[in-house]
Specification:
21% of the residues lie in helices and 27% in strands. It has 277 residues and is an alpha/beta fold. It has one domain (4-247): Carbon-nitrogen hydrolase (Nitrilase/N-carbamoyl-D-aminoacid amidohydrolase), CATH 3.60.110.10. The strands form 4 sheets. It has a 6-stranded mixed beta sheet with strand order 7-8-9-10-11-12, with helices on one face. It has a 4-stranded mixed beta sheet with strand order 3-2-1-13, with no helix packed on it. Helix 1 runs parallel beside helix 2. The longest helix is centred in the middle third of the chain and has 15 residues, at 169-183. It is globular. The two termini are 13 Å apart. 43% of the residues are buried.
Length: 277
């Protein structure tokens, strides 16, 4: 059964909360069918000094905004001051009911340049009636284990929040398509606009085809309607009708040792988790 999700990927520079709120309100008026609005990494935070506890004033304001507009909001990531006193780069998501439904601390800060504390868990969340979404922040995309684990947890769309102002955006575009292909998931790689990023945001389908792309660094909004049921179709019939990596193993095959992780690849645990909407 089809599960279409109308979304908007907002390639924009860092904003104040009031600027962000005004932008989202206008977007909701201009594009009333959009259900999920996504912004880039650290969209509301330029400085680590802006860090707040996860349940601080910014969190309450974002939850209220989502509830007032009746939208799913993924406002990028924020600097979070943890209970341990450390500062994390944390992605947050809010539901149309005005609740924070997910938070994810960036597991792979961009070493040695980023000084935030790394997180220690992968995060997916449910959008009832649509599907399961995985959260990823910028440099996470360079580590294949990250997107693979989100896909194994049942993610059908991975939101990769980005703030890249450097020349390696070219490589990130390749990684977005590669992560989509090898995991057979939708990938949204949403970069900041100038002057905080070089833009070139894109949305990739589970076969690696680019559905929407920003050509440059200017502020823009990419809109699309992604049918998350396409993930099931691609995995059933194969990429290009051929490749079914999630169906690689037979139940009676022996586990394969993985010396890299001091563990094993167990065919019984190979396939993604079941979705339960």
């Amino acid at each position: 059964m089809s599960r279409p999700l109308p979304l908007a990927l907002v390639q924009a520079p860092t904003r104040t909360f009031d600027e962000y709120a005004a932008e989202v309100r206008q977007l909701g008026q201009d594009r009333p069918h959009v259900r999920l609005v996504v912004h880039p990494e650290l969209h509301l935070c330029e400085r680590m000094e802006d860090a707040e506890p996860l349940d601080g004033p910014r969190d309450r304001a974002l939850a209220q905004l989502a509830g007032d507009l009746g939208l799913w909001l993924a406002p990028g990531s924020v600097y979070e001051r943890g209970d341990d006193g450390e500062i994390y780069n944390t992605a947050v998501v809010y539901s149309p009911e005005g609740r924070r439904v997910a938070s994810y601390r960036k597991i792979f800060p961009w070493r040695p340049y980023e000084k935030t504390k790394p997180g220690d868990r992968f995060v997916v969340f449910e959008m009832p009636g649509y599907g399961r979404i995985g959260l990823s922040i910028c440099y996470d995309a360079w580590f294949p284990e990250s997107t693979r684990h989100l896909a194994w947890m049942g993610a059908e769309l991975v939101l990769n929040f980005v703030q890249t102002p450097t020349v390696d955006r070219t490589q990130e575009l390749v990684l977005a398509r590669a992560n989509a292909i090898v995991n057979q998931v939708f990938v949204a790689s949403l970069n900041a606009a100038a002057p905080h990023g070089v833009g070139r945001s894109l949305l990739v389908d589970p076969e690696g085809n680019v559905r929407a792309e920003a050509a440059g660094a200017e502020a823009t909004v990419l809109t699309d309607v992604v049918d998350l049921a396409a993930v099931e179709t691609v995995r059933q019939y194969g990429t290009a009708g051929l490749n079914r990596p999630w169906a690689q193993w037979s139940p009676d095959e022996k586990p394969l040792e993985l010396p890299l992780y001091s563990g094993v690849l167990d065919p019984a645990r190979w396939a993604p988790e079941d979705r339960s909407l």
